[in-house]
Automatic annotation (TrEMBL):
<feature type="transmembrane region" description="Helical">
    <location>
        <begin position="48"/>
        <end position="67"/>
    </location>
</feature>
<keyword id="KW-1133">Transmembrane helix</keyword>
<feature type="transmembrane region" description="Helical">
    <location>
        <begin position="25"/>
        <end position="42"/>
    </location>
</feature>
<feature type="transmembrane region" description="Helical">
    <location>
        <begin position="135"/>
        <end position="156"/>
    </location>
</feature>
<feature type="transmembrane region" description="Helical">
    <location>
        <begin position="74"/>
        <end position="91"/>
    </location>
</feature>
<dbReference type="Pfam" id="PF04982">
    <property type="entry name" value="TM_HPP"/>
</dbReference>
<dbReference type="InterPro" id="IPR058581">
    <property type="entry name" value="TM_HPP"/>
</dbReference>
<feature type="domain" description="HPP transmembrane region">
    <location>
        <begin position="17"/>
        <end position="166"/>
    </location>
</feature>
<feature type="transmembrane region" description="Helical">
    <location>
        <begin position="97"/>
        <end position="114"/>
    </location>
</feature>
<keyword id="KW-0472">Membrane</keyword>
<protein>
    <submittedName>
        <fullName>HPP family protein</fullName>
    </submittedName>
</protein>
<keyword id="KW-0812">Transmembrane</keyword>
<dbReference type="InterPro" id="IPR007065">
    <property type="entry name" value="HPP"/>
</dbReference>
Amino acid sequence: MLTYLRKLRGAASALPPRATPRQMALAWLGGALAMACVANVGEQLPSGLLLGSFGASCVLVFGYPDLPFSQPRNVIVGHLLSSLVGLLLLHGVGPQWWSLSLAVGSAIALMMLTRSVHPPAGSNPVIIFLAQPSWDFLLFPTLFGALLLVVVALLYNNGTRSTRYPQYW
């Protein structure tokens, strides 16, 4: 028990280095532009495109675009799988606390299995259980919104950085 409690102190590692002012400004602008695109295009559609987890996706794709979690494959497949699992359990079992927990756990496992982990997508089942949408939620906002976010990230990150985005598909 004492060994376990000692683990709670952490590893005493140093904080990661602070981003440069340029990196912060580019991440800020990229996130703002991406959400402006998603929100504006969504206003033209009957169902909209806003999904709370897209804000967290912007943190990754614009703030840390070289991480595996930030790659287009992870963004698109992660959001799609997580929303699919959430919808399957919501409509197949019902809005129970335990079906929500199974949906989140299953989404994590499926993203890991498919090598498409995108942490913000882990909140999609929670969003789905709260909103209780129909099956079209899988296409709008999930798939179409994730695709639009990736398109903006591809254009923006390659236009503002010297390195390539994505690292892989």
